[in-house]
């Protein structure tokens, strides 16, 4: 049986507080493993590591985003991403009669929300409310602080929720780098061609891998992929229900999902036989999700074909799919570029900083090609500007 490599050499040591936090959460998870017979599915381990109440990576009060955290997201680079996103949001809001809202899932530091609301004000297309779904009290506090500092005139428009509103909204639902943080099932195809589900067991010095034959819906999904012996990867068991929830919560409008990933035929490519799961710790990436529990991010790339299939099953339309670079170009990126972009000697410090940000957002070697944008619509049939430069729905 193949198990993922454990390669964490060269990582900085956690400080005393982080190490104690990790140990405490590890002890809690070990107790759960013991109570459940000695092993749990990897998806449950990942969920505990990221979202255990008061202890998980995304709910404990530590900075995760930006230079002082573990990774940088597109909105944290500057204002370009948010300003382009605002142009696409504005098109949707103006295409709907009556009051509209914006809902953002997992708003991180609050940077995207602050940038977007300011740009929507300039475009004269403000939503009635900007709703943020955030389960972490610490992140809620950080988002409130960011918005009060960067967009104080709009503080009253913001409402924090821990679940979808009871009444369906008209408007836009945004989720930037949310799907990749959903717990996944890890699996492998053994030498006999049978599918195996990864488990996590407790060991004296931490955790170790185990496995069992996959069964039920998981086995059916793996079989449909028709993968060769020795192939290991992931499936997101929550995506169908999550998309169905969004569909139910949207009366009219568009869902915009931005994340790194591939269409299915690329996700399960023969050369990607070890899967896509990665961990992020202090701007270092490695492949051991069983280490540094509670103080490192655990992610998997997104199967955008599965997202599209879930949308269709929930009676939503797939309105567009493209790379982040193409989406930003379609959403007015060229209007934001410094006039003397090709003559750096004439650029101000601020313009040079913007050029670097644009490079990071659009370069194939950075975020431009790996990150994708998919739009799902409900009772909305306009062609979206963000997909006018190049629409790749045919590759789903």
What would you note in describing this structure?
The chain has 396 residues and is of the alpha/beta class. It has helices at 16-35, 42-51, 80-94, 111-122, 137-150, 216-225, 239-249, 264-267, 304-313, 324-330, 333-336, 349-362; strands at 40-41, 101-105, 129-133, 158-161, 169-176, 185-189, 195-203, 206-213, 232-235, 250-262, 278-281, 284-286, 297-299, 302-303, 317-323, 371-378. The protein starts with 15 loop residues before the first helix and ends in an 18-residue tail after the last strand. Strands 2, 3, 4, 5, 10, 14, 15 and 16 form an 8-stranded mixed β-sheet that branches. Strands 1, 6, 7, 8 and 9 form a 5-stranded antiparallel β-sheet that branches. 33% of the residues lie in helices and 23% in strands. A hairpin with a 5-residue loop joins strand 6 (185-189) and strand 7. The relative contact order is 0.16. Helix 3 (80-94) packs across helix 4 (111-122), helix 4 packs parallel to helix 5 and helix 7 packs across helix 9 (304-313). The protein is globular. The chain is built from 12 helices and 16 strands.
Tally the helices: what do you get? Answer: 12
User: CATH class, anyone?
Assistant: Alpha Beta
> What's the mean pLDDT score?
91
Main sheet makeup:
8 strands, mixed
What share of residues is helical?
25-40%
Task: State the end-to-end CA separation.
Answer: 31 Å
DSSP strand tally: 16
Strand content range? 15-25%
User: Poorly predicted ranges (pLDDT <50, ≥5 residues)?
Assistant: none
CATH topology: Rossmann fold
What order do the helices and strands follow? HEHHEHEHEEEEEHEHEHEEEEHEHHHE
List the domain count as a whole number: 1
CATH architecture: 3-Layer(aba) Sandwich
Radius of gyration: 21 Å
Instruction: Give the CA-based shape.
Output: globular
Derived from helix and strand composition plus strand pairing, the structural class reads alpha/beta
